[in-house]
Amino acid sequence: MNISKTRLKLTGLLIASTAMIAIRSPLVIWIITVAILVLGIRFIRYQVLWQRLNPILAVGLFVILFQLLFATSTPVVNRLLVGLIQALRLISLSTVVFVFTQTSSVSEVVSALSFLPRKVTLMLTISFTLIPAILKEIDAIRIAQQARGFAPKGINIIKSVFPVLIPLLNRTLTRAEHIAIVLETRGLKE
After folding, report:
1. Cβ-count burial 128-144 (b if 16+ within 10 Å, e if not)
2. What is the rounded (10 degree) CA torsion for 79, 20, 56, 81?
3. Domain coordinates of the chain in residue numbers?
4. For residues 53, 98, 124 and 90, what is the CA-based torsion angle, rounded to 10 degrees?
5. CB hemisphere CA count around 189 (13 angstroms)
6. Model confidence pLDDT, tens digit, residues 37-87
7. How far from 74 is each of 77, 80, 92, 175, CA to CA, in Å?
8. Other CB atoms closer than 10 Å to residue 36's CB: what's the count?
């Protein structure tokens, strides 16, 4: 793949992200979310996309419930609408980023961002590399938890999320520390 195609995808990512944040119309947000999901299904297998969006849907549901429970100064219909809009934004932004990271290799992204300063390119490259690594870590932690006999039941967040979240934070922070040591060893400083 050439640099111009990756830059075009990156530009599309930026435009879609900005549009989802700037647009206020619920109907337009819904249409863009559906279009992005169709785009995601077009470029990524449905099972893989569903597996990655499943946690995002749970977070979206949490956002809706949070709006319903804690934004008591507005009517219930408005709270529900705000929660739905925020959940749709979250789902569409996550889908756009996932499609971009799945269809672009790190070397393509680095080549496309070669016009940026070196430190910015490095920061973005590390970020794009860590997203799939963190998703793999989540799968590995879940498999390890299941092998130890842990099987969460129901929607109890404490029993289902924390046993995965705590080891994930530990592994992610350890990985970030290793990356920082490698960068410092190679002479890259602030």
Report:
1. beeeeeeeebbeebeee
2. 10
3. 1-112, 116-190
4. -50
5. 2
6. 888 888 888 888 888 788 888 888 888 988 888 888 889 899 899 899 999
7. 8, 10, 26, 43
8. 21
